[in-house]
Amino acid sequence: MSFTSGWNRRSFLSSVGAAAGSLFAPKAAFGKSKDKSNDKINMKHGVDGSPIVPITSGLGSTGDIYAELGVKPLINTVGTVTVIGGSVMKPEVMELIRRGNEHFVLIDELEIAAGKFIANLCKSPAGYTGLVTGGAAAAMVVGYAGMMTEDLEPRMKMIPDVADFPRNEVIIQKSHRYNFDHQIRQTGAKLIEVVTREEMIAAINPKTVAIHFTNIQSDNGKVSGPETVEIARAHNIYTFNDASADVPPVSRLWEYPAVGFDMVTFSGGKDICGPQASGILIGKEELIRWSLMNMSPQEDRIGRCCKVGKETIFGLLKALEIFVNQDYDATLRMYDARAQLISDAIKKFGVMAKPREFNPNALGNVTPRYSWQIDPAKLKLTGNDVMQALADTKPVGIGSFGANAAGLRGRNPGEPAGGAPQERRPRTPRPGRPAPDPNSFGFAVWQLKEGEDKVIADRLVEIFSQAPKA
Ligand SMILES: *Cc1c(COP(=O)(O)O)cnc(C)c1O
């Protein structure tokens, strides 16, 4: 293995040094869900750490795979963010992944059957079906490819060279441009930005294939989802709604297709808690068929790099089933109980719980955020100090304070000729962001695993005990 970048090599070596002396027991840190895996499955995000087979040599034989590789594991107080691993799968999902490895199967046949299972579970409108994709971003690639190629093999081989395709333009509201429109552009489609409803209608021409709708930006755009669908239908073009991070509430799985969007995508690896590299595309049967034609296992296709394995398909289906059938009120009570446990542990330092922030009608990442107020008359410590100390916790970090949700950035000499969309667009607000009030701190508890609320509470007690008194 060669690390050409000094950045990589340095941090790799330093983390090896840090990890070498600190073996820890993952079960103690992550809680033990083993014997309770059958009760109240919807209530827990715990993973079953019991091995299918004991590993006695090589990687995994010490019981701590993270230390073996010299990487620092994290407790997730941030949210369903891909850069720290998104979400974790429940034991039932892991079991389906294992069973999905039992046999070979024709992937296209499995995908079509999975699509029907998804459509049934998600109460999709008549004539709609589903597709398991390699993430919501992958769903955009194969979805837009399908719209442009239809079932024409030569076009599937040509893409992303779409200059000669009859339809290769996608209309998008300016406020709906975002980090993921790269996945539309990578198919070769040209984005046409509009602001108003009138501009949207005027932009439609014989080359227009679709209008893209970024669900999380609904309230920033002038044209609503239903209006977008109405305009597209009147002009016989398609609509695609990216609602990747926008469940829960679970009802959106059926509501958005019912609005009339031709295709809607949801991430499988966010709160659905399926495999990280999975997504769901729900859409009109013909469009889903064309999407699958542009995707792995097919070869010489743009979506050949959007591979979904048989194990992932089974895992995603199980995760979706558990997600759809969960009692969300009970889940919310569980989140409250986690925050309460933390509040109870730290109130003796004069650190008091602030009112829970929760908007059940938010467009995405619908989850409560909890925060606490430090009394500056008692402790000389800011909210940022607390978040930094949590992140610095060893051997398991708590949160990833300051880590950029967009991931590794490249060099930027001179710039910004046009600027990448992420430079210009406001980022989606995320739970776990640093608090604006310097004396408060807060985070999300929805991706904690069983027992991690206690780990956080204990660590906060330690942090506040050691903090300088005011
Ligand atoms: C997370 C996200 C995606 C990408 O989803 P993946 O499943 O990680 O590929 C796309 N669009 C939006 C709005 C997202 O939040």
Protein model, in words:
It holds the Pfam family SelA. Its cofactor is pyridoxal 5'-phosphate. This is D-Glucosaminate-6-phosphate ammonia-lyase. GO terms for molecular function: L-seryl-tRNA(Sec) selenium transferase activity; lyase activity. The protein has two domains: 230 residues, Aspartate Aminotransferase, domain 2 (3-Layer(aba) Sandwich), CATH 3.40.640.10; 126 residues, Aspartate Aminotransferase, domain 1 (Alpha-Beta Complex), CATH 3.90.1150. Helix 5 runs parallel beside helix 13, helix 6 crosses helix 12 and helix 14 runs parallel beside helix 17. It has 470 residues and is α/β, with parallel strands linked by helices. The N and C termini lie far apart (51 Å). Strand 5, helix 10 and strand 6 form a beta-alpha-beta unit. The strands form three sheets. The protein has a seven-stranded mixed sheet, sandwiched between helices. It has a three-stranded antiparallel sheet with strand order 9-10-12. The longest helix is centred in the last third of the chain and has 19 residues. The structure holds pyridoxal-5'-phosphate. Pyridoxal-5'-phosphate (PLP) binds next to helix 6. The site of pyridoxal-5'-phosphate has 12 residues, from helix 6.
